[in-house]
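Local shape tokens:
==================
===
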Amino acid sequence: MAWVLLLIAGLLEVGWAIGLKYTEGFTRLWPSVFTLAAMTGSVVLLALAMKTLPVGTSYAVWVGIGAVGTAILGIVLFGESASAGRLLSLGLIVAGIVGLKLAT
């Protein structure tokens, strides 16, 4: 169950990272509300996952999911670069996340 909570926490991290773009400096109400709710939910679920998972693994996986998801959505939503080097780097982050899961 802790891994499910951690996955959801990571997805919420992606949500708030992308949400920050839409808040326009927290001047837009509903994007700001969504972003703050996603931030809160992400940290709460991370804390719950850390009750049973190692702190280093939990944090690294949480950040990895957030980084990869945010970068992918940046490519899809905002037309950011999808260069081979960037995609390879994202693949290495995913490999690290999988490695941490298998080692825990």
